[in-house]
Each structure stands twice: as C-alpha cells, then as structure tokens.
Write a structure and sequence with these properties.
- 0% of the residues lie in helices and 39% in strands.
- The chain is globular and about 35 Å long.
- The chain is built from no helices and seven strands.
- Strands 1-7-6-2-3 form a five-stranded mixed β-sheet, with no helix packed on it.
C-alpha cells in the first residue's frame, strides 16, 4: 500500500493491475480531509501522486475502487512517500 513517486523510475505510480482487466473501473482517491484529489474512470490510469499537476506531500490517502456491478466497491488506503 505504498508508492514513491520521486522520479527514479521505480514505483513512481500507484498501479492496480487487477483494475486493468475491467472495462470501466472507477477509482477515487481522497486526502484526509475528504477532498477528491484523483479520479480515474474508464480504462484504468495509474495515479502519479499529483493533484492539479503538483506533487502531493507524504501522507496516507484513501480510495474507493469500483470494478463493476458484480463486486462491492473496495475501500482502503495508500501511503505516498517521496
């Protein structure tokens, strides 16, 4: 549950390989205040740890992942560190 978007080419994006197997997954990432900071709808796009083009600080972020109607939405956290 940790990724390091520091530009070294290793673990720079938070990727969920299983989401790529679904046609229209929806991922929402929130900060601790509940502000939506990332959203991916349709073909899955990994999160690069940015919000509005700017690097986010080291912190725990919370997500909801909806794969399709056959699954309950997954919720959890991811730790971003630089």
């Amino acid at each position: 549950n940790t990724f390091t978007p520091n530009g070294d080419g290793v673990n720079d994006k938070w990727n969920i390989p299983a989401a790529e197997a679904f046609a229209n997954p929806q991922l929402k990432v929130f900060n601790r205040d509940g502000q939506l900071i990332y959203e991916s709808k349709g073909p899955f796009k990994p999160w690069d740890g940015k919000f509005k083009g700017k690097d986010l600080p080291t912190a725990t972020y919370y997500y909801t992942l909806y794969l399709n109607e056959d699954f309950k939405p997954f919720t959890g956290w991811v730790f971003l560190t630089r």
